[in-house]
Write a structure and sequence with these properties.
The complex is a heterodimer of chains A (about 450) and B (about 110). By secondary structure, chain A is α+β, with helices and mostly antiparallel strands. Chain A is built from 13 helices and 19 strands. The two termini of chain A are about 30 Å apart. Chain B starts with a strand and ends with a strand. The chains are: A alpha+beta (about 450), B alpha+beta (about 110).
């Protein structure tokens, strides 16, 4: 094989539906693989902790159906990474079930369905910690303590190319991956077919977010990547978009602190010496990426731990005097919660929209609030009953705040709803760490079954 | 030539999570001339960004002038991980607004 073509129809499958027009154009270009990443830690710690998806199953089914039908029609294997946002075991099972149902629904000819899990057992990691294999912290975090491990609900490891390649070797036609590096989803087939690692990982890097590497800006459109022994070419499939030197080089810095380096299980893609050139109107050609293998393979771990049950409520403020004194209103309500529940054992948060609700302490204009404010109140506590009461006192008592010079003595805030609402439980990211492994398969168990008829 | 607002010189000004503990900011210019002009003006530096966002300089983990993309990018540590209760911007997507009106001298 002189070149290998992969299309990427969605940078976060299931999060917002694939735009099917450009997918059709991509399929018509006869790709060798159709691949997409379906995960992100951007969605916060709740989905991993609570083991849920962030989007309706119907949206995921929509994307999987379009990809599966295209894949089976042209005989190009389909690869999905980080099933169902988090890549937890239940999300892999969900996607495997959807694929099997779709295969039956459309009477697809029998094919091999491979999948692997990414969840990591807490006791397995505890043993690592106790035997001196520290779980190193990322982004300034300390090494993982056993108490943080205990506070964690669920942990996934970020697979590299290894389980994907293993399943391709076994003959999988469709692969559903647990949590995986975005780039691995695309790099794996390229490496499997013998293309160099440096270009393969670069191919993965540029395809991972689909049309985010094209301009003008527009998500969920298909892009096509083609790898040879010498270069990678990336082409926008949506007729209104182009992959330009600026858009492709610019994409390298998206969502990362260092635009030159991408770490995966097994090494680091170094884009410092990448050369970008406009190949044709809609295609950019890239040469010069380097891959630096790791001396010791370390795999990234993500973990989420439950903080408590949560209720939320909101109110508005229009009196300019009360707007100027909103912190005193909040302090009054906090005091009332403290009188009922003491100083600790719960969380009470206020976001003041119209002042600094979006940016908090980072907001330079927080001393120039708008003419009206919306205050969003969150109560978090060990039980739902307590969380409801924390949020309710925290909200209701704003109505009774005592400001010395207020003219309106019939209520300090406006309620759109005189109630608090149950929200998702509060979770927090407990693990953003790495663990040393013997090889890229240590944490990932693969399976291969038949689907279709 | 008078001072110009950064939003008139940059084609993209954005913020987004870089993992769960950091938010990264990208200021991308359409051409080399505008990129070099802003670099020369020294209005986008570790120090000016710390002052704009009212944070200590140590909270800026990276500051990069990225020539291949005609871009300047910097990254800050969050005080609590993304999506913790009370976080108003789980994706970190709306933290760039104060950059728009930054004045760039001629």
């Amino acid at each position: 094989m002189h070149t290998l073509k992969i299309i990427s129809p969605n940078g976060h499958l299931g999060f917002a539906p694939i735009r099917t027009g450009s997918l059709g154009l991509g399929v018509a270009a006869r790709p060798d693989y159709i691949a997409a990443d379906s995960g992100s830690d951007d969605v916060g710690p709740v989905p991993l902790g609570a083991d849920i998806c962030t989007s309706p199953e119907a949206w995921q089914r929509h994307d999987l159906e379009h990809m599966l039908l295209a894949s089976r029609k042209i005989g190009a294997p389909m690869i999905i990474g980080s099933a169902g946002d988090t890549g937890s075991n239940s999300r892999v099972d969900l996607f495997v079930r959807i694929i099997r149902e779709l295969a039956a629904k459309h009477g697809l000819k029998k094919f091999r369905l491979g999948y692997f899990y990414s969840e990591v057992d807490k006791e397995y990691l505890r043993t690592k910690i106790r035997t001196g294999d520290a779980l190193a912290g990322l982004d300034g975090r300390a090494a993982l303590s056993e108490s943080e491990l205990d506070a964690t609900e669920r942990i996934v490891a970020m697979a590299g190319v290894h389980p994907f390649i293993e399943l391709l070797k076994q003959g999988a036609d469709v692969i559903i991956g647990g949590r995986s590096s975005d780039a691995a989803v695309f790099a794996a087939p390229a490496i499997h077919h013998g293309f160099p690692e440096n270009l393969s990982y670069y191919l993965g890097k540029v395809l991972e977010c689909a049309s985010f590497c094209a301009e003008p800006y527009g998500g969920k459109e298909t892009v096509l990547g083609e790898i040879s022994g010498e270069d990678v070419k990336v082409t926008a499939m949506y007729p209104e978009q182009r992959c330009t030197v600026a858009s492709v080089a610019g994409h390298a810095m998206y969502e990362r602190s260092n635009p030159y380096q991408e770490f995966v299980a097994g090494g680091m893609l170094d884009m410092t010496h990448c050369h970008y050139e406009q190949f044709d109107e809609r295609t950019t050609r890239i040469t010069g990426p380097q891959f630096v293998p790791a001396e010791v393979m370390r795999v990234k771990l993500e973990g989420s731990g439950k903080v408590g049950e949560r209720y939320v409520g909101l109110c508005g403020i229009r009196d300019p005097y009360t707007v100027a004194n909103v912190d005193r209103v909040i302090a009054w309500a906090k005091d009332k919660v403290r009188e009922r529940f003491g100083d600790s054992g719960y969380e009470l948060h206020y976001s003041v929209y119209g002042r600094d609700g979006v940016m908090g302490a980072l907001e330079p204009l927080r001393y120039q609030p708008g003419h009206e404010l919306c205050v969003f109140v969150q109560g978090v506590a060990p039980t739902a009953e307590m969380a409801e009461e924390v949020a309710m006192i925290g909200l209701r008592q704003m109505f009774y705040a005592r400001l010395p010079d207020v003219k309106g003595t019939a209520g300090s805030v406006a309620f759109p709803l005189d109630e608090v609402l149950r929200a998702s439980p509060a979770y927090r990211w407990t693990l953003n760490h790495t663990v040393a492994v013997k090889n890229g398969m240590e944490l990932f168990k693969t399976h291969l079954i038949d689907a279709g008829v | 030539m008078a001072a110009t607002r950064l939003s008139e010189l940059a084609k993209t000004i954005r913020s987004k999570n870089a993992g769960v503990d950091k938010i990264t900011f990208d200021i991308i210019f359409r051409d080399r001339a505008n990129y070099e002009r802003v670099k020369r003006a020294r209005v986008l530096t570790r120090e000016t960004m710390a002052a704009l966002y009212r944070i200590p300089a140590e909270r800026i983990s990276d500051f990069v002038e990225y020539d291949p993309g005609y871009a300047i990018k910097f990254t800050i540590y969050r005080l609590t991980p993304s999506g913790s209760a009370g976080d108003g911007d789980i994706f970190g997507a709306q933290q760039y607004a104060p950059l728009l009106d930054l004045e760039v001298p001629a």
